[in-house]
Amino acid sequence: MKEMDMIKDIVRAYRNYPDHVAFVIDDTSYTYQEVFARVRGIMPSVRDCPEDIIGIMAEDCIETYASILAVLLSGKTYVILHPNYPDSRNRSIAEATGMKQVLYGHESGICQSLPGKIKCISTLELRDDNREHSLWEQVQDENKNAYIIFTSGSTGIPKGVPISRKNLNTFYAAYHQLGWQLGPTDRMLQMFELTFDVSVVSSLYPLTLGASIYTVGTNKLKYMRVYELMEDKELTFAAMPPSLLQFLSPYFDEIHVPKLKYLVVTAEAANANLLQRFRSCAPNADFINLYGPTEATIYCTAYRIPPGGCKQHNGMVAIGRPFAGINAMIMDEKGMPVPAGEQGELWVSGEQIMQGYWQDKDRSRQVFARFNGKKYYKTGDLCSADSDGDIIYQGRKDYQVKIQGFRVELSEIEYRTKEFFSNETNAVVVPKKEDDGGCQLHLFVETAPHERDALLCYLKEHLPVYMLPTDIHFLEEFPLNTSGKIDRKTLTTLI
Amino acid sequence: MEIEEILRELDTIFRDILKNENITLTPETTAKDVEGWDSLTNMRLITAIEKHYNIRFGLREILKFKHVGDLCASIQAKKK
Description:
The complex is a heterodimer. Chain A is of the alpha/beta class.
């Protein structure tokens, strides 16, 4: 595979198309020239910071995106903090990474909740319009991290997934090789939260092409906004979670987006029937399912969904073939390949796979395994492979679920619940799939009937909104199964 | 129907779906003002409102709702 450098290509596109629109945010356009004036303005602060890790407050503003570019161009590592996260979550991420500098646009309020030794820098006024100032001077160290994404962790402390430049560039080359017919005139959607790694490709890949990115930020009614942009701005590329389509589905007869060239569904299992129904809204689009754990850098398999005869399992669209450079195996419980066509856990290896979780050797050991001399990441996803070599997704192995595209470890909710009860009671979260593809979280607590509000209030302080339970059930005694474990199946029947 | 009457009926629907008994809507209320009113619950709210009044909103129409007042006006017009 040809070696490629994403950041280098972004700088090249900026030089080639300085007057092209790079970002459209809330109806305001910013050319490549304008974006890079901000990038140059921010870079000195980043370079002067003795630490490698730079925090960025995720806001839907041009300064946030310019900050990401400035950190990457400076050869440093960015870590996203979020204004909507509970203070304690931002604080624990800041502490875990030891960051000393945070870049923010408008959301200065969050800075007060961070440890005092952190220097918060407003990027709003930072500009350098001198195009002579170079952007690309040092050779970038491929082993340095480009970013660390924090995902839900079962100990209550979010776990960090460090992605190196090597990981990112390997991903970039393989993603590019999928053969997108995209260029400087394309209009592409970026609707993912920056705390979620799919946002990295949605906001950086278009910049390698000289194309325009239309963002949708933490707007409370963002799904409506996505529809509005797709239709009014005639977007040509859109990557989204299938839940967005599910949400729009009662209105498919009103939606017409003939300019859309690509519809990418990602972040959760896509429903084959739903996509089929969307075909008439986007008659000229290729539909592609992209799959990948954060640990393997954004995406690592792709399935081009045919207009008829989509491969699926219980309605969930297949995830297709591994990216170039990714080695995928379907393994049994003993760590041996399953016979052809049988179900097992998907293991992936290659240069896209992270080195290990941020400062967590124990957990890293748990998720890696060796086979035939290669290091594999165990995805925890159950899959099978068919005779064409397409991988069919069949569900999560453990109790990790996806809510609105976010990965949620149920044990994190359980952990906080137990904490609220001073660890004196048991708590179990049972996910209940809804017919529309959504997922409800039912929290069971082993205690006499208790006041819900105080518990809910406590959970709100520590967990993002999407992790809050749909319902709370108090049970005097949990049902147990024959091996003495809490019987989750029986709990499900009590919902 | 009077706007005030619609508002109180909407209160009930919102309280039920957002599981919050403290919601009291005014014509100026927007999604920003109400905890839990987001993309996903919005659709559930719209569906519940459509069912309650036996009406149907278009997608473009929903997009134009800037606050609860717009929603009330639309319900009022449809129930005429």
